[in-house]
């Protein structure tokens, strides 16, 4: 089995090989992920360098049992086994790190020789070095960024300027106009086609140097980026605004950009295709209408495997976690429950995998793109620009109530009508000291009542707070008053 890469058919097969104790390297990948494809080339070469190790490949979405077992939420992802145990993992596309980790686990090529970095003097060496420079990493470019100089060399500046000026209208995007790999890139392509202008494009996923360099060159941190006669117009939101206001057409006209029908998208009226089939997608008008209805059923909608509280794949779980971290309400649709939607949405969105995240009807992308956007802060910005506000968590609500007044009393009942003797005593003590205070009746809101116990780590009521800090309950307040310290405590 050594010297080649084998596709794993089941978890039982994997477990049996791992138990034998030989070094095993497991690569989780996805056919739609460019980074996975590039890393798979490195992986294959490494299998030649280390014929005594077992190299397994797993299609992450097609083998959910195995993916779940190793908590895979993004690809590429690698797991390293030795002596029947998991000894290391690696997430992301880093050829050099992969080569070194394999060398460490698999040992030397020849018995008696020390393990050396696999990127040095071995079959995988050229591929490692080439991939470091050329592959596009869907999960973000943080590792590659660290390899780039903080400034731009004159050579790179000249190269970027030449690429920008390749066409009068130039779009730097994720993917190609025929196969965009993010919703924002797709939208700008649609706008340019509606404007009937010829434009060139550059897939920034295929060239990390251009991708990271252009961010610094243009002082614009995200993609797509649209240029006209060498000048940056902006990203997706600016292109949309200029298009809707008519300003984009004026800019093209002022710069002598000619329009052409070659890029015009064909409009299809419902039912104009044969048998009610849309000419643009091949989907029935009924299914198209249903898909669009689902996409617009919530401002933020996630088409996923499983449900938010029971994800059925690591990629879906990751996007759920991200949305929860961003504190936004979102709808979801389990594509495993409806094969018509599952297959139809791939065609409708021109996006071949799941999960798929939509915001206000626009496709954002899958797990890797959403993760990258969150890390860069772009996701929060997009949500804000689309008017998606963060939902208030229970902790946020409790904290806001505590800080609603400098002195705040959580009690049973109201100051004028206390519903327990302890609350009544604290109210009397505060009034005796002429202390102004706010109050909240915890009997009117069970969520706040229980949440406050957890937040304060104080199991009973009343609870008195001063400037956001817990002072205590009835006994402590009475002790402070009897010692003559209550007034001073609440005025520090």
From TrEMBL:
Q: Which residue ranges does the record annotate as region Disordered?
A: 259-280
Q: Which Pfam families does this entry report, sorted A to Z?
A: Glutaredoxin, Thioredoxin
Q: Which GO terms describe its molecular function?
A: iron-sulfur cluster binding; metal ion binding
SUPFAM superfamilies attached here?
Thioredoxin-like
Stretches of the chain forming a coiled coil according to its record: none
Q: Where is the Thioredoxin domain?
A: 1-107
Q: Where are the transmembrane segments?
A: none
| One Gene Ontology biological process | intracellular iron ion homeostasis
Instruction: Provide GO CC annotations from the record.
Output: cytosol; nucleus
| Record key words, sorted | Iron, Iron-sulfur, Metal-binding
Bias type Basic and acidic residues, positions: 259-269
Protein family:
Belongs to the glutaredoxin family. CGFS subfamily.
Alphabetized NCBIfam families for the sequence: Grx4 family monothiol glutaredoxin
- Name of this chain's protein: Thioredoxin domain-containing protein
Lineage per the UniProt record? Eukaryota, Viridiplantae, Streptophyta, Embryophyta, Tracheophyta
